[in-house]
Write a structure and sequence with these properties.
Number of helices: 19
Oligomer: single chain
Strand order of the largest sheet: 1-6
Order of helices and strands: HHEHEEEEEHHHHHHHHHHHHHHHH
Radius of gyration: 26 Å
Strand content: under 5%
Largest sheet: 2 strands, antiparallel
Structural class: mainly alpha
Number of strands: 6
Distance between the termini: 48 Å
Length: 420
């Protein structure tokens, strides 16, 4: 059913200069920079090759022979002989009893430093890396629900601003207090609590001021931005090499958006639904001015006089997270979607982090190619959604993901190499 607001959009332009500029600036440029600031922790937490620190080689023997006097050798998963990363001999002459490393030597071929190498979070301390990601993901899950409700209750604009504040403050804490595991994790939680709410917010605003035909374009731009951020990020780390400088640079890209966040418009549709008709009209006039159109006096009067949707008590209806479980079918769909989202997120995170830890080649190129392959997938997904619908466009990639992991499980290392 067409509403007064829908008629107003037709009058001021649903696909004008304002909408196109908004999409390019926020749904692509901003989303790309946000993606780097939000996921930079993936590369910063990489565990680089390491071993126990041993004396310098002053004897007339090869480095391999010298290492074997101090460090045990064992077979890895593929059967290749490798030096132990965490143990050394107590007595190099006897070579019978081992102990944990006193100090560590890190291979700085690709990474000059990471969080793990700076704090020696390796070997027995390696669990701190996994715990950081796990706890941060819990914060992300809670924030996804909380910020979704916040956006519906207090507006898209405030969600955008607070998400930026949380990310910047969280990263500052993690960088400044990285020597403390507790403070480092607190910073990661704060940075991840907004989840992708800020990007989702600008996407929602764009969709609420555009025609239905433009929504696919908006979603595609956002997905391309995400892939672009993951593609650019490893090259930036390759150049900077130090994890702190890398995180400072990628996080600093959010400061201009934070300082000028007061210029972000509130969704006029949200304002109208909340009964804030005057504010809605002001925003609509801004859009009309950019589109070189005008809001007619009769249309403006219709907006000011029309009543938004209300519940039986006359108050604007606020839909919270619990509304997703208001019915049996809706609850089942919510649970299934959550399960799929968690499964895909885990698989994606593991693949990206493992590519960043690649030992037999350039880890940055591996990370970049893994991201680059998403671009044709995104374009194909957008095309598929327009042809067969959203439902089957979701079923097909989920099925391919399951098939890929089953192949990896059954085929072992050969399948992994083939899929990569």
């Amino acid at each position: 059913m067409e509403t007064v607001y829908d008629r107003v959009l037709l009058e001021i332009g649903q696909n004008g200069y304002f909408q196109k500029k908004f999409d390019i600036f926020y749904n692509f440029l901003f989303a790309t920079l946000w993606g780097m600031a939000y996921t930079n922790i993936f590369l910063a937490l990489v565990i680089i090759p390491h071993r126990c620190q041993i004396p310098d080689n002053f004897e007339n023997i090869s480095d391999t022979e010298w290492k074997s006097k101090y460090i045990p050798i064992s077979n890895n998963i593929s059967g290749k002989l490798v030096f132990s990363s965490c143990l050394m001999y107590e007595n190099p002459v006897e070579n019978n009893h081992t102990k944990d490393c006193d100090n560590y030597y890190y291979d700085q071929t690709w990474y000059e430093s990471t969080v793990a190498s700076s704090n020696n979070w390796v070997c027995k301390e390696e669990l701190k890396i996994a715990n950081t990601l796990a706890i941060s993901k819990i914060g992300e899950a809670i924030g996804s629900l909380g910020f979704g409700w916040f956006g519906d209750t207090y507006g898209r604009r405030w969600t955008y601003i607070l998400s930026l504040v949380f990310l910047v403050i969280g990263r500052i804490i993690s960088i400044a207090f990285s020597y403390s595991f507790t403070f480092f994790v607190i910073g990661c939680i704060l940075a991840w609590i907004p989840s992708w709410s800020v990007v989702q917010t600008v996407t929602v605003i764009s969709m609420e001021i555009s025609s239905p035909e433009c929504r696919s374009r908006t979603a595609t731009l956002r997905s391309l931005a995400n892939s672009s951020s993951m593609f650019i990020m490893p090259f930036l780390y390759w150049w900077l090499r130090d994890w702190k400088i890398f995180m400072i640079v990628t996080t600093a890209t959010q400061l201009p958006f934070l300082f000028y966040s007061w210029k972000m418009i509130e969704s006029p549709r949200w304002l109208w639904i909340q009964g804030k008709s005057k504010a809605c009209v002001r925003t609509l006039k801004i859009i009309a001015k950019e589109n070189k159109t005008r809001l007619g006096s009769d249309t403006e009067k219709d907006i000011l006089d029309s009543a938004p949707f209300t519940d039986t008590r006359g108050a604007n209806t606020i839909i919270g997270p619990l509304a997703l479980f208001s019915g049996r079918r809706l609850a089942i769909n919510t649970i299934l979607q959550s399960y799929l989202w968690i499964s895909v997120a885990i698989n994606y995170t593991v693949l990206m982090m493992k590519s960043g830890e690649k030992l037999d080649g350039n880890p940055f190129l591996e990370f970049a190619w893994q991201s680059a392959v998403e671009v044709p997938g995104t374009l194909f997904g957008a095309w598929l959604a327009d042809r067969v619908g959203r439902r089957y466009a979701g079923v097909i990639p989920y099925s391919l993901t399951v098939l890929s992991w089953v192949t990896i499980k059954k085929g072992g290392s050969q399948s992994i190499s083939l899929l990569k």
